[in-house]
Please model this.
Amino acid sequence: MQEKHKQQPVDAVKLDRLAQIAVKTGLGLQKGQNIVVTAPVEALPLLRRIACHAYRAGANLFTPLLADEELTLLRLREAPETSFDHAAGWLYQGMAAAYAQGAARLAIVGENPMLLANEDAGKVARLNKATSLAYKPALEKISNFDINWNIIAYPGLAWARLVFPNLAENEAVYRLAEAIFAASRADREDPLAAWAEHNAALRRRSDWLDTENFAALHFKGKGTDLQIGLAEGHKWSGGASQAKNGIICNPNIPTEEVFTTPHAYKVEGIVQSTKPLAHHGSLIENICVRFKGGQIIEAKAGKGEAVFNRILESDAGARRLGEVALVPHSSPISASGLLFYNTLFDENAACHIALGQCYSKCLKGGAHLSKEEIAARGGNSSLVHVDWMIGGGDTDIDGIKQDGSLVPVFRKGEWVSA
Amino acid sequence: MQEKHKQQPVDAVKLDRLAQIAVKTGLGLQKGQNIVVTAPVEALPLLRRIACHAYRAGANLFTPLLADEELTLLRLREAPETSFDHAAGWLYQGMAAAYAQGAARLAIVGENPMLLANEDAGKVARLNKATSLAYKPALEKISNFDINWNIIAYPGLAWARLVFPNLAENEAVYRLAEAIFAASRADREDPLAAWAEHNAALRRRSDWLDTENFAALHFKGKGTDLQIGLAEGHKWSGGASQAKNGIICNPNIPTEEVFTTPHAYKVEGIVQSTKPLAHHGSLIENICVRFKGGQIIEAKAGKGEAVFNRILESDAGARRLGEVALVPHSSPISASGLLFYNTLFDENAACHIALGQCYSKCLKGGAHLSKEEIAARGGNSSLVHVDWMIGGGDTDIDGIKQDGSLVPVFRKGEWVSA
Model:
């Protein structure tokens, strides 16, 4: 490998800690378990450290599926028209089979968030839809939390240049790496202990929200006056949780949110985005939508409106909510002041909502509910799941109890109770 | 990709021609066809050019499966004992499904031939066996020639250093690239025309051999006195041929051989290897074996004997022949004087035989024969197919006709007839 001879502008000790976090805290990998990993080629230095920690933790098979962004661009620019409505179904079905047989799922992200910004939006949308459709059986095993899974980030060069446009390449990669390490607690001497402590704090929040058992949340802020009904028998999640295979894992590294399933038909009012949304290589800014009966009936965006409308047109569920998440304005990622152009990070800087597919684990007894039962409780279903940020320093949230009484939850972007 | 900013010590024009050869001559890719490609990460510059030519030729889906040698080493060194008897069956089954649905198969090779030389031979053998077993359904579609397929090479750094141990890294890669380009006819102004001409020459050889319809070939040379019975209704192949899906392709780039299926039970005598055999990262030299009733009953090797014995112990068919191939000593690859440590090249420098699985396409009506019918004709069956070189400048070959009369085929390593 020629890469071996190239100095990576990334702290090797912290990179190794990040790999350890992915395997131990992220996946909670079990001895003898198989792992399927997707990663951009550029993330090989992290992938190799993860493989090492995974094998040492007793991983049986470690199967990498490496992606190259240049090949994606070549497809969009050179492939015949017929290509864009197809996907390699055999590969996605295989992944679903691997998960059904007990494999864990790890995704390393680090791609150029703007890769597709100048490509044909129609082709991109068709390609994404065909891929989503092929991927659905595998994605359902993840969104239903059948297996332990984890997403973690590596500082790719194009991503680093986007976040730090005024720095030299090596400096930008170094700075993004440090930001990833800090947000992922890989800068701590004992990162696993730091994660145990953080998970306990998130658990206290979600336990309190479960005890309150709100019927709805009312968000108020600049340009936002939105009431979000919560699904019947909803349950709050955050940090570590137990997959249906019994394994406790942290699906997202980093994570600062507690979140639950809204009622797909009980969302009313207007809401405005507070941070840009980087979606499949396009940037969508200043989203402003109106909900009625849970459905988006008006949508505007200051930038990327066509892309946003394409998301809404993906299927019937794309106009309804699948997630609502609470993140204090003082979260470390928000405090970093950086815009990461990546939902994994940016969603942990602010309260957010997601259009599309809900998480069944955010319903009591969700592990054993049929699709019909989930829908009956208000859980949304869709091929997409797109998070966007609606919280900021001026966000107030009230919880509306089942008897209609109000409980202050957030004031000026921060938790009211401890 | 950081690679973009690194000067590749490889001629870009010839690399692009090699990609064109892979798509047009190698695969004979059809409009609307899908392709599955395996490649080492290092071969991305060639993979991208191939994707471009494939899409322009009308490829529908181009699915790359990228491998990283460091991950292979990490597995051998860090994975638990239980790992080595398993393989990602879902991935190999998926590949078989893709081929069954009409996808073409492209393999880019360029790995370090000595990667596994210092690893635990027992683990390597178990890993190879588990992988072969999982891969068998997919491999059978290739060895049965159900689909169009092609193998082509990229000059990886570790490979280049092995072939040119006394040159600086960039110089070694450049020289190996030039050797690959020359052997693959990517150094010609019109490479597709050059391949058409070469394929016609190979066709004349195989047509003559088919007309002669020899019962056996008798090889004589230094340390070799071997009679190889040919399968009943055998057929000679070489260069371009038609897969069962009707597509004409060149499975190997480069290729200088004509080859057929021996009779698995009619091989008698002794034979000595004339070039080293690089097998799964180990080097096997000076092989000397005795056949009786088609089976190897004595085997020695000057170097790598344990690895060679492990091949023989793979299964019952590993001790019998699946292929015999004729290559003149004056072939361009032989004339280059290089040892490539890679069968794709080295087998085209000399007459060779292969232990293990036969090609059903080298039997008349082979496309429609059952496994039992292939066996009844003398076609061998095995999980392995391992070529090794037995020809040189002193090789004489006689064809033995069905009536027992002799026809000179090779004298002093060269074809006797035109």
User: Anything to note?
Assistant: Chain B touches chain A through 51 residues (CB under 8 Å). The radius of gyration of chain B is 20 Å. Residues 9 and 170 of chain B are 6 Å apart (CA to CA).
